[in-house]
Amino acid sequence: MIARVASGGGKRESRIPVEDRLFSLVLALLATETGLLKAEILSTVRGYAERFDTSGQNANLERQFERDKDDIRELGIPLETVESPDRPGDNQALRYRIPKGQYDLPDEVRFTPDELALLGLAAEVWREASLSADSQRALTKLRSLGIEPRDPVIGYAPRLRVREAAFEPLRQALDRRQTVRFRYFKPGEPEARLRTVNPLAVVLHENRWHLHAFDLDADGPRTFLLSRIIGAVTPVAGSTFEAPPAGIQDRVIAELNELRLRNSADLAVTAGSDAEVRLGKRAVEGDEDAGVIRLHYTDAAVLADELAAYGPEVRVLSPESLREAVRERLRAVAAAHRDGVEEAS
């Protein structure tokens, strides 16, 4: 997402979004105490470096940089111009920087727990952006110019990680609007099936990542759990698609929430058990005397996996389909242990 170094002069790549280029510029200017020369910015920062001409024909790129400076300042970011003491009045010797002390949040600004949770989710989506491969290459390039980036820039990297291996290639496919293939295991099917899809949105719902996409084989929209994607996500060469409609992420989350509210399960939990403590926190209704709670859920297979792990601490009262799904998992566990005992004997 951020600063990337072009591998050669004049190399042209796909158009970088404006917001991506501005963010890359801000991060680069925050990374240095002494500032960067215009030539250093144009040759190293993502959004400029892809179009930088080493022969010096960069008039259009310089005008773009001038407009970007104005845009950054209009956003309230304190971009400074520092004149060289050895070359006063020489515009080519001007250095640009963003003083980190002026850009930091004021000490009196505090976040509520809910606000911190939202920031944490945003950080999880960002996925360590300021320490990505693009950023590391850019910082390495700056060091090669004799500029040592300030360590505090590393503080911009979120500490949250996305566990599913499919997340990053899907994010890249979304950015590039590129069709992808992957093998997907759907509960109830004997093996994973190959899916070819146009990714439209990746959303977090009930602490699980979901991909909403147009399934080319099924000729319709489908939503997939990233945790059920088996193996690599591979792009389909030369296959792209139109940008998804605005607000699609909100629509997908709303649909998942509606699905969750339509599904409810009544569970009998053992008093004082781990199941009572953990599941009770999510209960929408409960009868403490009877030891019964009601939960909403989105995916029956995911809930069945969780309930089976509690063993005798929880019993499904309804629906019958969920009760049978839990029984199947417990039978599979019992059979596996029987087989293990027989082999050992």
TrEMBL record:
Domain of life of the native organism: Bacteria
Pfam families associated with the record: WCX, WYL
WYL domain location: 166-230
Residue stretches making up the WCX domain: 264-334
PANTHER family xref list: PROTEIN PAFB (PTHR34580:SF3), PTHR34580
Protein name: WYL domain-containing protein
Highest classification ranks of the organism: Bacteria, Bacillati, Actinomycetota, Actinomycetes, Micrococcales
